[in-house]
Amino acid sequence: MTEPLRCYRHPNRETYVSCSECGRGICPDCMVFGPVGIRCPDHAKGAAAAPKQRAKVTARRLSAPVGLVTRILIGINVGVYLLELATGAGINANSGWIYEHGVLIATAIDSSGHAIGVAQGDWWRLITAPFLHYGPVHLGLNMLVLWFIGPALEEYFGRWRYLLLYLVAGLAGSAGALILSPNALTVGASGAIWGLMGAAVLLEARKIYVFGGQAMGLVVFNLIFTLLIPGISIGGHIAGGIGGAAAALAFTSLRRTPKLATLTVAAIGAVSVAVALLSV
Questions:
Q1: Which of 53, 87, 122, 233 has its CA 20 to 30 A from that of 181?
Q2: The CATH fold of domain 68-279
Q3: Which of these is catalytic: 190, 233, 272, 279?
Q4: 268 to each of 94, 122, 153, 164, 166, how far by Cα in Å?
Q5: pLDDT of 57 over the 60 cut
């Protein structure tokens, strides 16, 4: 089994993060957030890495760019929208086979006169809806926010934990949307993105400043936006934020037992699905 990464200054602490310059493990107390990447205290002061170490880091960067999962998620969201257009949906993407089979709704009647929705057993809508959007503006705004906030969290948590957090937040957002507005046709990545913001607030509360201490301000601004603009899924946003914060709490509180942390976050996702199914 692979030896867990440990902080080079505090060997008794396991960590998910390594210095972007030298690759050594660094715990939250030793992380220095720079304009690009997270560095150890030595390299944050401008100390040069040994040539051999620098060559290894360069190779890792070339093979695995920063924000890789974030880019893939953006690509999937954009790709689904383009596929909708290619299969005959209008520019607002509120029609067509993909939309009818993916939109989040408790129960409704489709264009063929058949009953559809989560209450009819269409449980997959809980995860497909976060990858659908109402037109280019809706898609563009969500992807822009994801592009700005995703990479920092991805670098902190690691790619697979970050992806799990994103998906769990999306499920939580779907559950919240069904609870508060079961008859609304809901789509969008906002619940998952709010989960990332919730995770950032949780980290900030634990003195881990992934966004330089601005996470709470970002959430407050978006909460005002959510409450004032009609048509936005309030339940999806708030529940997504709670789901993301809960996942981040599990990952940071159970750092010494990574498998247990992953299972706990997966359980949060399962609970979200159960709540959604029981609410319809």
A1: 87
A2: Rhomboid-like fold (1.20.1540)
A3: 190
A4: 30, 20, 19, 10, 12
A5: no
